[in-house]
Amino acid sequence: ERGWIRVVGVKDSPGKPELLGTTPQFLQDFGLESLTQLPAFESFVGQGALDV
User: Fold this and answer.
1) Domain coordinates of the chain in residue numbers?
2) Taking the alpha carbons of 35, 15, 51, 45 in that order, is the dihedral positive or negative?
3) Does residue 47 contact residue 41 with C-beta atoms inside 8 Å?
């Protein structure tokens, strides 16, 4: 809806899941120049951010 993600491919496995990536709009809206400015995935582990 906000244009932050886009389909970048389709995995060749059952169900053909879409592979998603971020857009330039995502970077712009969050004031980032590149994805390297995002925190590491590991920084969210153990903080409850990934509990579903």
Assistant:
1) 5-44
2) negative
3) no
